Amino acid sequence: MAGDRLHLEIDGPVAVLTNDNPDRHNAFDDDMDQALFEALEELRRRGPEVRAVVWRGEGKSFSSGRDVASIGNHTVDLPHTELMRRGHRGIQQLWELDAPVIVACKGWVMGGSFQRALLCDLRVAAEGTRFRLPELTHGVIPDTGGVAVLHHMCGPGVVSDLVLTGRVMDADEALRHGVVSRVVAPDDLDGVCLDMAHQIAKAPLLTVRLARDVIRHLTVPDVKSSMADEAVYQTMINRSDDFAEFRAAHAEDREPRYQGS
Hints:
This protein is of the alpha/beta class. It has helices at 30-46, 80-91, 111-118, 146-154, 156-165, 171-177, 189-202, 205-238, 241-252; strands spanning 6-11, 14-19, 52-57, 101-105, 108-110, 122-126, 130-132, 168-170, 182-184.
Protein backbone atom coordinates (compact mmCIF):
# COMPACT_ATOMS: atom_id res chain seq x y z
CA MET A 1 0.00 0.00 0.00
CA ALA A 2 1.13 3.57 -0.67
CA GLY A 3 0.67 4.36 3.01
CA ASP A 4 3.57 2.01 3.63
CA ARG A 5 5.72 4.12 1.29
CA LEU A 6 4.87 7.58 2.59
CA HIS A 7 4.57 8.47 6.27
CA LEU A 8 3.38 11.52 8.18
CA GLU A 9 4.50 11.90 11.79
CA ILE A 10 3.52 14.86 13.97
CA ASP A 11 5.47 15.69 17.11
CA GLY A 12 4.09 18.79 18.76
CA PRO A 13 4.37 21.77 16.38
CA VAL A 14 6.65 20.01 13.85
CA ALA A 15 5.57 17.39 11.31
CA VAL A 16 7.85 15.08 9.32
CA LEU A 17 6.71 13.77 5.93
CA THR A 18 8.84 10.84 4.73
CA ASN A 19 9.10 9.25 1.28
CA ASP A 20 9.72 5.57 2.06
CA ASN A 21 10.32 3.69 -1.18
CA PRO A 22 14.13 3.48 -0.92
CA ASP A 23 14.60 0.47 -3.21
CA ARG A 24 13.42 2.72 -6.08
CA HIS A 25 15.09 5.90 -4.80
CA ASN A 26 11.63 6.98 -3.54
CA ALA A 27 10.14 7.14 -7.04
CA PHE A 28 6.43 8.04 -7.06
CA ASP A 29 3.53 6.26 -8.75
CA ASP A 30 -0.21 7.06 -8.68
CA ASP A 31 -0.74 5.41 -5.30
CA MET A 32 2.13 7.31 -3.66
CA ASP A 33 0.80 10.52 -5.21
CA GLN A 34 -2.56 9.89 -3.56
CA ALA A 35 -0.89 9.17 -0.21
CA LEU A 36 1.03 12.46 -0.49
CA PHE A 37 -2.11 14.44 -1.29
CA GLU A 38 -3.92 12.85 1.66
CA ALA A 39 -1.01 13.73 3.96
CA LEU A 40 -1.11 17.34 2.78
CA GLU A 41 -4.86 17.40 3.34
CA GLU A 42 -4.32 16.16 6.90
CA LEU A 43 -1.77 18.91 7.49
CA ARG A 44 -4.17 21.47 6.06
CA ARG A 45 -6.97 20.27 8.36
CA ARG A 46 -4.75 20.61 11.41
CA GLY A 47 -4.21 24.29 10.64
CA PRO A 48 -2.04 26.20 13.14
CA GLU A 49 -1.51 23.08 15.28
CA VAL A 50 1.42 22.26 12.97
CA ARG A 51 3.86 25.15 12.69
CA ALA A 52 6.54 23.67 10.38
CA VAL A 53 7.01 20.59 8.20
CA VAL A 54 10.15 18.70 7.16
CA TRP A 55 9.80 16.63 3.97
CA ARG A 56 12.52 14.00 3.67
CA GLY A 57 13.33 10.64 2.08
CA GLU A 58 14.47 7.29 3.44
CA GLY A 59 17.55 5.73 1.90
CA LYS A 60 19.95 7.40 -0.50
CA SER A 61 17.65 9.87 -2.27
CA PHE A 62 14.87 12.32 -1.57
CA SER A 63 13.10 11.09 -4.70
CA SER A 64 14.03 10.14 -8.25
CA GLY A 65 10.71 11.53 -9.48
CA ARG A 66 8.12 9.55 -11.37
CA ASP A 67 8.57 5.80 -11.46
CA VAL A 68 9.55 5.29 -15.12
CA ALA A 69 7.44 2.14 -15.32
CA SER A 70 4.34 4.21 -14.53
CA ILE A 71 4.84 6.97 -17.14
CA GLY A 72 1.77 6.84 -19.35
CA ASN A 73 0.42 3.88 -17.35
CA HIS A 74 -1.98 5.14 -14.69
CA THR A 75 -3.75 3.01 -12.10
CA VAL A 76 -6.36 5.75 -11.67
CA ASP A 77 -9.14 5.44 -14.27
CA LEU A 78 -9.50 9.10 -15.23
CA PRO A 79 -9.08 11.09 -18.46
CA HIS A 80 -5.59 12.54 -18.81
CA THR A 81 -6.81 16.12 -18.37
CA GLU A 82 -8.49 15.18 -15.08
CA LEU A 83 -5.36 13.35 -13.95
CA MET A 84 -3.41 16.56 -14.48
CA ARG A 85 -6.04 18.60 -12.60
CA ARG A 86 -5.99 16.08 -9.76
CA GLY A 87 -2.22 16.29 -9.49
CA HIS A 88 -2.18 20.08 -9.56
CA ARG A 89 -4.98 20.39 -7.00
CA GLY A 90 -3.22 17.92 -4.74
CA ILE A 91 0.18 19.57 -4.72
CA GLN A 92 -1.18 23.13 -4.58
CA GLN A 93 -2.33 22.29 -1.05
CA LEU A 94 1.26 23.22 -0.12
CA TRP A 95 0.24 26.85 -0.53
CA GLU A 96 -2.76 26.40 1.79
CA LEU A 97 -0.79 25.09 4.77
CA ASP A 98 -0.22 27.28 7.81
CA ALA A 99 3.17 25.56 8.15
CA PRO A 100 6.22 26.29 5.99
CA VAL A 101 7.66 23.18 4.37
CA ILE A 102 11.42 22.48 4.43
CA VAL A 103 12.69 19.87 1.97
CA ALA A 104 15.71 17.77 2.93
CA CYS A 105 17.34 17.14 -0.45
CA LYS A 106 19.82 14.29 -0.90
CA GLY A 107 20.93 11.83 -3.55
CA TRP A 108 18.65 12.22 -6.55
CA VAL A 109 16.04 14.98 -6.60
CA MET A 110 14.50 14.51 -10.02
CA GLY A 111 11.56 15.25 -12.27
CA GLY A 112 8.22 15.86 -10.62
CA SER A 113 9.74 15.45 -7.16
CA PHE A 114 12.27 18.20 -7.91
CA GLN A 115 9.42 20.41 -9.07
CA ARG A 116 7.34 19.64 -5.97
CA ALA A 117 10.32 20.53 -3.80
CA LEU A 118 10.52 23.86 -5.64
CA LEU A 119 6.93 24.64 -4.65
CA CYS A 120 7.90 24.35 -0.98
CA ASP A 121 9.26 27.17 1.19
CA LEU A 122 12.85 26.04 1.78
CA ARG A 123 15.28 23.46 0.43
CA VAL A 124 18.45 22.26 2.13
CA ALA A 125 20.83 19.97 0.24
CA ALA A 126 23.27 17.37 1.46
CA GLU A 127 26.66 17.42 -0.22
CA GLY A 128 26.52 15.28 -3.36
CA THR A 129 22.85 15.95 -4.09
CA ARG A 130 21.97 15.91 -7.80
CA PHE A 131 19.00 17.75 -9.29
CA ARG A 132 17.61 16.89 -12.72
CA LEU A 133 14.59 17.42 -14.98
CA PRO A 134 14.72 14.40 -17.34
CA GLU A 135 11.14 14.57 -18.64
CA LEU A 136 12.01 15.21 -22.29
CA THR A 137 14.03 11.99 -22.37
CA HIS A 138 10.80 10.19 -21.46
CA GLY A 139 8.77 11.89 -24.19
CA VAL A 140 6.92 14.36 -21.93
CA ILE A 141 7.39 17.85 -20.45
CA PRO A 142 7.78 19.02 -16.84
CA ASP A 143 4.25 19.52 -15.58
CA THR A 144 4.24 20.34 -11.85
CA GLY A 145 4.93 24.08 -11.83
CA GLY A 146 8.59 23.89 -10.88
CA VAL A 147 9.81 25.34 -14.17
CA ALA A 148 8.10 28.64 -13.32
CA VAL A 149 9.84 28.71 -9.92
CA LEU A 150 13.20 27.90 -11.49
CA HIS A 151 12.65 30.67 -14.04
CA HIS A 152 12.34 33.16 -11.17
CA MET A 153 15.45 31.75 -9.52
CA CYS A 154 17.79 31.06 -12.43
CA GLY A 155 16.48 32.85 -15.52
CA PRO A 156 15.53 31.39 -18.91
CA GLY A 157 19.04 30.29 -19.93
CA VAL A 158 19.64 27.91 -17.04
CA VAL A 159 16.05 26.65 -17.13
CA SER A 160 16.25 25.93 -20.87
CA ASP A 161 19.53 24.08 -20.34
CA LEU A 162 18.09 21.92 -17.56
CA VAL A 163 14.82 21.17 -19.36
CA LEU A 164 16.03 20.70 -22.92
CA THR A 165 19.22 18.73 -22.20
CA GLY A 166 18.20 16.97 -18.98
CA ARG A 167 21.63 17.66 -17.49
CA VAL A 168 22.43 17.32 -13.81
CA MET A 169 22.71 20.32 -11.47
CA ASP A 170 24.89 19.57 -8.45
CA ALA A 171 24.38 20.92 -4.94
CA ASP A 172 26.97 23.67 -5.27
CA GLU A 173 25.40 25.03 -8.45
CA ALA A 174 21.96 24.78 -6.85
CA LEU A 175 23.25 26.90 -3.95
CA ARG A 176 24.68 29.52 -6.32
CA HIS A 177 21.32 29.87 -8.07
CA GLY A 178 19.30 29.95 -4.84
CA VAL A 179 17.58 26.65 -5.57
CA VAL A 180 18.72 25.59 -2.09
CA SER A 181 19.55 27.89 0.79
CA ARG A 182 22.17 25.69 2.46
CA VAL A 183 24.46 22.75 1.66
CA VAL A 184 25.38 20.55 4.62
CA ALA A 185 27.15 17.28 5.34
CA PRO A 186 24.92 14.26 4.58
CA ASP A 187 24.91 13.12 8.21
CA ASP A 188 23.73 16.58 9.30
CA LEU A 189 20.87 16.98 6.82
CA ASP A 190 17.92 15.75 8.89
CA GLY A 191 19.17 17.49 12.02
CA VAL A 192 19.66 20.83 10.29
CA CYS A 193 16.19 20.68 8.74
CA LEU A 194 14.58 19.76 12.06
CA ASP A 195 16.44 22.59 13.80
CA MET A 196 15.15 25.02 11.16
CA ALA A 197 11.61 23.69 11.61
CA HIS A 198 11.73 24.14 15.39
CA GLN A 199 13.14 27.64 15.00
CA ILE A 200 10.26 28.58 12.68
CA ALA A 201 7.74 26.93 15.02
CA LYS A 202 8.84 29.27 17.83
CA ALA A 203 8.07 32.41 15.81
CA PRO A 204 4.65 34.12 16.04
CA LEU A 205 2.19 32.25 13.83
CA LEU A 206 0.65 35.38 12.29
CA THR A 207 4.08 36.80 11.49
CA VAL A 208 5.17 33.59 9.74
CA ARG A 209 1.89 33.38 7.83
CA LEU A 210 2.05 36.95 6.56
CA ALA A 211 5.74 36.75 5.66
CA ARG A 212 5.00 33.65 3.59
CA ASP A 213 2.07 35.43 1.94
CA VAL A 214 4.34 38.27 0.85
CA ILE A 215 6.85 35.83 -0.65
CA ARG A 216 4.22 33.64 -2.32
CA HIS A 217 2.43 36.59 -3.89
CA LEU A 218 5.62 37.27 -5.84
CA THR A 219 5.61 33.85 -7.53
CA VAL A 220 2.40 31.84 -7.09
CA PRO A 221 0.33 33.64 -9.79
CA ASP A 222 3.04 32.88 -12.36
CA VAL A 223 3.31 29.28 -11.18
CA LYS A 224 -0.45 28.74 -11.47
CA SER A 225 -0.43 30.19 -14.99
CA SER A 226 2.45 27.91 -15.96
CA MET A 227 0.67 24.87 -14.51
CA ALA A 228 -2.42 25.66 -16.59
CA ASP A 229 -0.27 25.66 -19.75
CA GLU A 230 1.43 22.44 -18.66
CA ALA A 231 -1.91 20.67 -18.23
CA VAL A 232 -2.99 21.55 -21.78
CA TYR A 233 0.34 20.75 -23.44
CA GLN A 234 0.96 17.51 -21.54
CA THR A 235 -2.49 16.29 -22.58
CA MET A 236 -1.64 17.12 -26.21
CA ILE A 237 1.60 15.17 -25.89
CA ASN A 238 -0.16 12.20 -24.30
CA ARG A 239 -2.40 11.96 -27.38
CA SER A 240 0.35 12.56 -29.94
CA ASP A 241 1.85 10.16 -32.47
CA ASP A 242 5.33 10.95 -31.16
CA PHE A 243 4.41 9.82 -27.64
CA ALA A 244 2.90 6.64 -29.02
CA GLU A 245 6.18 6.09 -30.91
CA PHE A 246 8.18 6.76 -27.73
CA ARG A 247 6.25 4.07 -25.86
CA ALA A 248 6.52 1.61 -28.73
CA ALA A 249 10.26 2.18 -29.08
CA HIS A 250 10.75 1.77 -25.33
CA ALA A 251 8.80 -1.51 -25.34
CA GLU A 252 10.74 -2.78 -28.35
CA ASP A 253 14.13 -1.58 -27.04
CA ARG A 254 14.94 0.51 -30.12
CA GLU A 255 15.58 4.13 -31.01
CA PRO A 256 12.34 6.09 -31.57
CA ARG A 257 11.54 7.59 -34.97
CA TYR A 258 9.74 10.86 -34.26
CA GLN A 259 7.68 12.62 -36.95
CA GLY A 260 6.79 15.80 -35.08
CA SER A 261 3.11 15.04 -34.68
